[in-house]
Model the fold of this input.
Amino acid sequence: MSPKQEKAVVDWESFRFAALLCALGIGLLLVVFLTPDATNRNFRALLSVARASPWRHWGDWPAAWCSFKIILLSLAGFLILFPHAMVLRLQQRHTLSNLIMAATPFLFPVYLVGVYCLIKSLL
Done:
C-alpha cells in the first residue's frame, strides 16, 4: 500500500470516528429534549427547576433529573462541536477548526452548573 493510499485510509477512519461522536452527541440531545422533565412545575426551564431546589430538601428528584439533563446537554454540545472541528482540521481548514475548538471551553461552565445543581438537589 502506498503512503498516499495509507493516508486516505487513516482519513476515512477519522471521518468515521467523527461521525460516531457526532451521532452520539445527537443521541444525547434527543435524550435531553425528548424525555419529560419529571416535574409538574408548569413547563419551566431546566435551569430554573434545577436551581429551585433548596439545600435543606434532600432527594429532590425532579431537580436532580433536570440537573442531569443539563450535564447531558453540555456533553452533547461537546460531542457535536469537537468532531466538526476534527473534520475541518482534516480538510485543512485550520482557521474555522480553531474557532470551533475555541468555543468548546464555554461548555465546561454549563457542565459545572449541572454538577453543582445535581449535588445540591441530592444532598
